[in-house]
């Protein structure tokens, strides 16, 4: 066992160089001034003050959160019945359905989004609506699969037991099936909300320049403007927002289980 | 006692498979009823139909005077303890037990009183807040029972609830269940394949087989007066013998007449006789109706299980000719060859094939350097259809050859009219090495001698259980050896607290009331 443990070292080094150090650099940039000569480091909160004092930036952040939340909710609303239906099928049909759901994922997300762009470009829909369509389309399979997995693992006898103890179909669903699939919903939310809040190419491709999200802001400041300090600060703010929202989601999960 | 449930001609099919073939059964109030049978006998299906989780294809279920076939499960005054408990993993012990009451919108304070009392009853006080997944199998079992009973059902269904527990816990729960049933005073319907469980707990046992009820009765009735061979075999251990009912109170088996307490059979009707192992009195000194030899003794804790053979089986003795190695060695080709003389039944001569001759003579050829097998390319023989000795020659491609003799003999078999068994076996030839190399000498001897026994009634094969010989296979020399093949004969299984050495001569006695005579079962 001990010698196997050594096999993790390359990964630790890899992760150190390509994940930890860049992250530290982001933090470092976010708290320092423009003109990044390493020797003359000066600590500052200017970047954050600039972000929060300008309503445009704050609005972009709120818009991103709104988009992510609505996308997640719609994914649950469409995905849950879909997964529930799949879990009721015969084993063979279930395998087929899982295949059908995962089928689009065989093609790169970027390519599929380009395809949507072609489809929607003449549609006359608002940029916002186009972005929503693209988001839901891309993230729905993650929700379906997560919920389906938790539903299909569930012991059928539990439903029988619920009927035995006086539940009709509706109550059996509300009291047993739904609570037991909460962990699946939570991991579905994680898989949909996180990429949705920071997504930048879907809004850019489908919303055109007019629908800017946090992800686009970060991209802009790093790539176009070259203002790494402000870009880093925005990334950091986004990270904190994500951490907070995940904390609340988990909290919801545990409180369900404790009860 | 008041009749609570009536099953009337319940038929259930799954696809084309008929699982229940017209079940008629009455269950009374406050009864502990066990549905007993092997897996696939339909007992669980019947339980699920009563629970409302399956619907029957034909027949009626009358519950307390009302037909309830169309009542959904959640409206039936019946609760179930499932085989794998089916506890709700997202709820703790208290919430699991309270589940049914909460659904019925019982006031909170009443729920609390009832649930706590029920948890107390099943002996889990203090576990209210525990996560059900952290409980042991026995504790989960108790939660499942409490969760069902707290709803105060008229009937509790238990679907093999003890199957997942270990032996000690199972025994404990058996007593526990019986106690709980007496305390709450409702009808328990218990499904199991474990006869001991059934005997321990039940007021009434229903023995099932292939979708039919075989017998309904108290544990004592089922054990002491099984209606047929199947029930006798399923409930406890027993000796089951073929017998003939000479007249009322007189049955004949094993060529002797015995007094018995049974009557009402036709004169000279063929019957099954069941004798429980503990009802046979075994002794070294007292004279008995039967004598026999102790064949084996097993210690079973409280008693010894003694197998006594009262009659040896039908037997046939043959001669094994053991020869020295006679391998042929072709030095030019580096080939070695080997074959045995062999004996053949006159009846087999007509249809004999080359392959069979090679097999019977055990003819082999191999490379003397690397030991690899070489195929035999030609078999030459001229066997006539009358007894005699004929030469057989085996050849390889490279010209190595060996000649052996085949002994064609008249078919010889022993027919035992008394036991209706025929047995046959042939003399055979083997080399010292072949015997030494045998991994399972008794099995090989049977194959070599072509030993076979069959029933004269229906030509079915009968096992040859005894192969007797008096040589040491690991240290055998050239010469002739006698080998006796025999069928099982008559053996009795006896439970006794006294120890008997293997090979002892013993006397057996059976009291008339311990001889249970039953109608022959109709073979399906």
Number of strands of chain A: 0
Work out the strand percent of chain B. 35-45%
Class from secondary-structure proportions of chain A: mainly alpha
Q: What is the CATH C-level name of chain A?
A: Mainly Alpha
Biggest interface reads: A-B, 21 and 24 residues
Task: Determine the fraction of residues in helical runs of chain B and give it as a percent range.
Answer: 10-25%
Q: What do we call the CATH topology of the largest domain in chain B?
A: Immunoglobulin-like
Distance between the termini of chain A: 39 Å
Overall pLDDT of chain B, averaged?
86
Estimate the mean pLDDT confidence of chain A.
86
CATH architecture of chain A: Orthogonal Bundle
Spell out the CATH superfamily of the largest domain in chain B. Immunoglobulins
Q: What is the beta-strand fraction of chain A? A: under 5%
The structural domain count of chain B equals 4
Q: Count of DSSP helices of chain A?
A: 12
Number of domains of chain A: 1
Walk me through this protein's architecture:
The complex is a heterodimer of chains A (259) and B (524). Chain A is mostly helical. Chain A has twelve helices and no strands. Helices cover 80% and strands 0% of the residues of chain A. The C terminus of chain A is likely disordered. Chain B is α+β, with helices and mostly antiparallel strands and 524 residues long. Chain B has four domains: 159 residues, Rossmann fold (3-Layer(aba) Sandwich); 64 residues, no CATH class; 87 residues, no CATH class; 173 residues, Immunoglobulins (Immunoglobulin-like). Helix content of chain B is 20%, strand content 40%. In chain B, the strands form eight sheets. In chain B, strands 6-7-8-3-9-10 form a six-stranded mixed β-sheet, sandwiched between helices. A five-stranded antiparallel β-sheet of chain B has the order 13-12-11-14-36. In chain B, strands 15-35-16-17-34 form a five-stranded antiparallel β-sheet, with no helix packed on it. In chain B, helix 2 runs parallel beside helix 4. Chain B is elongated. Chains A and B meet through helix 8 and helix 9 of A and strand 6 and helix 2 of B.
